[in-house]
Write a structure and sequence with these properties.
5-stranded mixed β-sheet; mainly beta; Methanol Dehydrogenase, Chain A; 6-stranded antiparallel β-sheet; 2 helices
Length: 551
């Protein structure tokens, strides 16, 4: 990391000082009477609850909100009534977010089922009520082991299943869970495979697994004779899988910054696991890994896919349509679509100083992206927005209908909020009740409430707690628009699960250190808490800690 310039540091200090003055009274509780009852934020119309959690952060918009929660409220989430109620043991780190199906026929009974994938290439299914194991499968083929860490400490000591899977309830008789697993054989060959497993049994469905391979035209890093080939050992599937319009999108990051690597997006048909599209976002350059701290690419109702790329080549020479002449989109917001059977970029935005940012390793793609519901601006026009932030401590709002492209002299983006967050972003935002929540590195968890489809620079509330590396990715539980609670995990020793009132982050309702050893659990970085049916699930290095109302 590079040090801030003196003027920037002074500016940041003044903003933080002003924020501290504003929130000194707000955290005292004096403003509680001005809040709506039940700690709700009710400016948005109610959502129809989905009791399942089938994908990373709950939906393809990546909002992180579970709005079918009827048991957990700001009144009962406290250390007297709420705490750790169980632990699901398993082998391998749980770096993927657990998933949940609320009504599944397994072993002759209707059950609520938790699905968990681990870095030991294992997938588990547990009964969410009794915690009884239902099935466990290994995705290693005969003679294989999980991958070594490839000389990179980001995922260590083994690499198996890193990315959060995705579930399709319409696949086959019971539905299927899609998982990418990395492995190697005794001869040192590495493999990346996409698996589709039956939800009720864990058995591979027809056509599964599919070995991931791809080629693409380009002269970029690692190319031969004008052709790039996907090299399984050079990549890991870090960002969560996405399912949109019947396609499973896999996106690929490097091991640390070990060259050579470029920026791959590879799509598969969910019905038969046949490859449906291949795109390289730095085909004539280098780098541009798709990290997003494990957050998945987002997708809108039309099936357009949105993601953030890491530091890498961006072509500042544009073609007649304003797109990079060589097709290199390092360090950018990117919108993808399938057109005439081909996957391609249909819109993008990057900063005027994107090349300098990449050279300084201040990549946008260190954080995740979220799509926002329709909003009306001050003129009454409906806006379709997306939000993202990375290492430059700027929160960007892009118009999904016209993202802004590249301009060397100014950022032609819908909105940018400089220093809105007080640290680099290594997580993903959550959205609930007209507010977006960010928990950057060495910063407080902050809520920013939209006004006329704009995001104020100063937060509407923030926690007193700061979060060390990597910051925190919040999730939200609520009953419709009522009883909103923001959940975060602090990567400390021991780890700490925090719960805050969504309407006022000054109000900490619970943390897992308040009752001493009773609720404590082992830390694991880059963890996103998952809420479902009165329980909160947190991945650890050896399983999943389960929190709920105490009996």
């Amino acid at each position: 990391m590079n040090g801030m310039r003196r003027t920037e540091a002074i500016f940041l200090f003044l903003i933080c000082l002003f924020s501290a003055v504003i929130f000194a009274s707000g955290c005292s509780g004096d403003s509680a009477s001005e809040r709506q009852p039940n700690d709700s934020i009710a400016t948005s119309p109610p959502r129809v609850p989905d009791l399942n959690v089938l994908t990373y952060h709950n939906d393809n918009f990546r909002t992180g909100q579970y709005v079918g929660e009827t048991s957990l409220t700001p009144a009962n989430v406290n250390s007297t009534n709420f705490g750790k109620v169980g632990f699901l043991p398993m082998r391998g780190l749980v770096d993927a977010e657990p998933l949940y199906v609320s009504n599944l026929m397994v072993k002759g009974a209707r059950r609520k089922v938790i699905f968990v994938a681990t870095e030991h290439d294992l997938v588990y299914a547990f009964d969410a009520d009794t915690f009884a194991p239902l099935w466990r499968v290994s995705l290693l083929e005969a003679g294989e082991t999980t991958s070594d860490n490839r000389g990179c400490e980001q995922v260590t000591p083994e690499i198996g299943i890193t990315a959060t899977p995705v579930i399709d309830l319409s696949k086959g008789p019971h539905g299927a869970i899609y998982v990418v697993a990395m492995s190697k054989d005794s001869q040192g060959h590495y493999f990346q495979r996409l698996h589709a497993l039956d939800l009720a049994t864990g058995a591979e469905v027809s056509g599964s697994p599919a070995a991931i391979s791809a080629t693409y035209s380009g002269r970029g890093a690692g190319s031969k004779n004008g052709r790039l080939s996907f090299d399984a050992k050079q990549y890991k599937e870090r960002a969560a899988l996405s399912l949109a319009n019947g396609l499973i999108y896999t996106t690929w990051s490097s091991h640390c910054d070990v060259s050579p690597y470029t920026s791959w997006v590879i799509a598969y048909n969910s019905a038969n696991l046949q490859q449906a599209g291949v795109l390289n976002l730095t085909p004539n350059g280098t780098e541009g890994a798709i990290w997003m701290t494990g957050a998945g690419p987002a997708a809108d109702q039309a099936g357009n896919v949105y993601l953030l790329t890491g530091n890498g080549t961006f072509d500042t020479t544009l073609n007649a349509e304003g797109f990079p002449a060589e097709g290199d989109y390092g360090n950018a917001f990117v919108k993808l679509a399938m057109k005439s059977g081909k996957l391609g970029v249909v819109d993008y935005f990057t900063m005027h100083d994107t090349v300098d940012q990449s050279e300084q390793d201040e990549d946008l793609g260190s954080g995740g992206i979220a799509l926002l519901p329709d909003m009306q601006d001050v003129s009454g026009a409906v806006r379709h927005l997306a939000v993202g932030a990375g290492k430059d401590q700027i929160v960007y709002l892009v118009d999904r209908d016209s993202m802004g492209h590249f301009n060397a002299s100014a950022d032609r983006v819908y909105e940018k909020d400089t220093w809105a967050i007080g640290g680099m972003e290594f997580g993903a935002p959550a959205y609930f009740g007209d507010a977006v929540y960010y928990g950057a590195y060495k910063d407080e968890l902050r809520a920013f409430t939209f006004v006329n489809a704009t995001l104020p620079r100063l937060p509407s509330s923030q926690t007193s707690q700061k979060f060390d590396y990597p910051g925190t990715t919040p999730s939200v539980s609520a009953n419709g628009n009522l009883n909103g609670i923001v959940w975060t995990v602090e990567n400390s020793v021991p780890a700490v699960l925090h719960a805050y009132a969504a309407s006022d982050l000054c109000k900490e309702l619970f943390n897992s250190n308040q009752a001493g050893a009773r609720d404590q659990f082992e830390n694991n970085k880059f963890i996103t808490p998952m809420i479902a049916d009165g329980r909160v699930y947190v991945g650890t290095k050896a399983g999943v800690a389960v929190f709920g109302l105490l009996k």
